[in-house]
Design goal:
This protein is mainly beta. It is elongated and about 90 Å long. Helices cover 3% and strands 24% of the residues. It has a 4-stranded antiparallel sheet, with no helix packed on it. A 3-stranded antiparallel sheet has the order 5-6-7, with no helix packed on it.
Length: 196
């Protein structure tokens, strides 16, 4: 286009920072602690982002200003470009706990939330809602809500309602029922539950 673009590298010796500027605007700053701050998006053409092993790592968004709602963080797998070709799959999103070795357990995958508390200005504490352990067991700390008709056990769809299942929980309330030919009862046939 004929427009001249310049890249100027400035070093502030008093603060121990390095500043990368384009046309006077800082695009990247590196302080004396090695922390890099980008003023815009960071696009990585390679396939990996790796953290060093000297400490635990955290991926987070900075706190917002007072009175401003926190910002969302979305992690999305790859998608094909819309148009032209049909029926192209999207990429999978995989979350992995750290691998152990030998008899050492692998790391859990832990989902935490911060439930609303009483009125106030303090941050609400995080609490674990779901833990997926290395043995593939899943532990929920709260209720698990499954919409009707969407519970499968071993490939068999459970069609019973919650009220019907609760009847098997030893409830003491009963209603008067006149049995007719079409009625059935459930019996334990040597360890196997059957309707007869």
């Amino acid at each position: 286009s004929g427009t001249y673009k310049s890249l100027i590298l400035n070093s502030d010796y008093s603060a121990g920072t390095i500043s990368f500027r384009i046309q006077g605007n800082e695009k990247l700053g590196i302080n004396n602690a090695g922390i890099a701050t980008f003023s815009s998006d960071l696009i990585i053409n390679g396939g990996d982002i790796k953290f060093g092993n000297s400490d635990h790592a955290t991926l987070t968004i900075d706190s917002t200003a007072v009175g401003t709602q926190g910002k969302n963080l979305t992690i999305t797998a790859g998608k094909p470009t819309a148009g032209t070709t049909d029926n192209i799959s999207g990429g999978s999103l995989t979350l992995q706990g750290g691998q152990g070795k030998g008899s050492g357990a692998g790391g859990d995958i832990i989902f935490q939330v911060a439930n609303a508390g009483s009125s106030g200005s303090s941050l609400n504490s995080h609490a674990t809602a779901l833990t997926i352990s290395d043995d593939k067991s899943a532990t929920f700390a709260g209720e698990v809500v499954i919409s009707a008709g969407n519970l499968d056990i071993g490939g068999t769809n459970v069609t019973s309602t919650a009220a019907e299942l609760n009847l098997l929980d030893g409830a003491t309330s009963a209603t008067s029922t006149t049995l007719v030919d079409a009625d059935r009862i459930i019996v334990n046939d040597d360890g196997t539950m059957k309707q007869v």
